[in-house]
């Protein structure tokens, strides 16, 4: 597990590991998993405004109604800032390596009872909820999985939600791939 985490952390910029399968449990710390669960549970409170993801909840509501700690509220605000930061998704420089390939595989088990089950719950709510859950989930990654959510956009998350639900219904998992162009990621049911 440590080798996987180290390989992800060292991937940098937009360089990727070809053919690497990263287990979901290897990327989410317990406190991040708790935040992801809370974000998924309040999925209806997220909405798209243009290409920006917004949360329609006050700090008091997050704390008292949804059980967020002060640290979780701070982390959620940071996740939303990163999700909307399009400068994080700038084109790679000439000295960076760009490769197309599978970045992450989430099995049926991951999507139904594992760390990624919160992504499934968010997908059931809609694209904005999934975008918020993905921003939280992908915060553990550097490189292409850490792309700004705003760059991926609403259409990507609508497709992502459908593919998650298809995978769960058919007993399959999903593969997340890098690709050239926009959006820089694509999702396949596998």
From TrEMBL:
Keywords: Signal
The keyword Signal is annotated on this UniProt entry: yes
Top-level taxon in the UniProt lineage: Bacteria
Signal peptide interval: 1-28
Protein name per Swiss-Prot or TrEMBL: Antimicrobial peptide, SdpC family
């Amino acid at each position: 597990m440590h080798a996987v985490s180290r390989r992800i952390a060292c991937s940098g910029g937009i360089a990727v590991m070809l053919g690497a399968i990263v287990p979901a449990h290897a990327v989410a710390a317990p406190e991040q998993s708790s935040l992801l669960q809370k974000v998924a549970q309040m999925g209806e409170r997220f909405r798209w405004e243009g290409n920006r993801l917004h949360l329609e909840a006050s700090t008091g509501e997050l704390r008292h109604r949804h059980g967020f700690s002060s640290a979780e509220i701070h982390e959620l605000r940071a996740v939303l800032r990163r999700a909307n930061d399009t400068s994080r998704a700038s084109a790679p420089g000439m000295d960076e390596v760009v490769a197309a390939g599978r970045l992450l595989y989430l099995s049926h088990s991951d999507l139904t009872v594992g760390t990624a089950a919160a992504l499934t719950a968010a997908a059931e709510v809609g694209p904005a909820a999934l975008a918020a859950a993905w921003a939280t989930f992908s915060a553990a990654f550097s490189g292409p999985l850490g792309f700004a959510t705003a760059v991926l956009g609403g259409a990507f998350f609508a497709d992502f939600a459908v593919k998650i639900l298809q995978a769960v219904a058919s007993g399959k998992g999903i593969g997340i791939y890098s690709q050239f162009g926009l959006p820089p990621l694509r999702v396949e049911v596998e």
